[in-house]
Amino acid sequence: MKSSNDAASFENGLSGIASKHGISNWRASEATFRGIGEALGKANLSETQLEVYKSNLAAGDPTMALAMQKGFEETHAR
Questions:
Q1: What is the DSSP string of 18-58?
Q2: Rounded to whole angstroms, how far apart are CA atoms 3 and 64?
Q3: How far apart are CA 40 and CA 44, in angstroms?
Q4: Is the distance from CB of 69 to CB of 50 less than 8 angstroms?
């Protein structure tokens, strides 16, 4: 997510996936943010890259940012 276009594309993809699974407001779900963190950890992103995703997706919500962090830490290869 180097640009706002990347962030918008990522969010649109999330919205599409959530919709397929009957989730109408993925931004209100801690489980969704935890799952995003898990996926980023499995992708072996760096802590710095995680911070970019947290900034763009959690949009200042500390609860959602923490959920992403926890998911990331559970799956990230160290």
A1: HHHTT-S-GGG-HHHHHHHHHHHHHTT--HHHHHHHHHHHH
A2: 21
A3: 6
A4: yes
Query: Residue 75: how many CB atoms within 10 A of its CB?
Result: 14
CA distances, 25 to each of 38, 43, 69, 70, 73 (Å): 19, 25, 20, 21, 25
| Boundaries of every domain in the chain | 30-78
Q: What distance in Å separates the CA atoms of residue 73 and residue 3, rounded to the nearest whole number?
A: 25
Looking at the whole model, is its pTM more than 0.85?
no
Instruction: Give every CB contact of residue 39 below 8 A, 6+ residues apart in sequence.
Output: 71, 75
Rg of the Cα trace of the chain? 12
pLDDT in tens, 24-67: 888 898 999 999 999 999 989 899 989 988 998 998 999 999 99
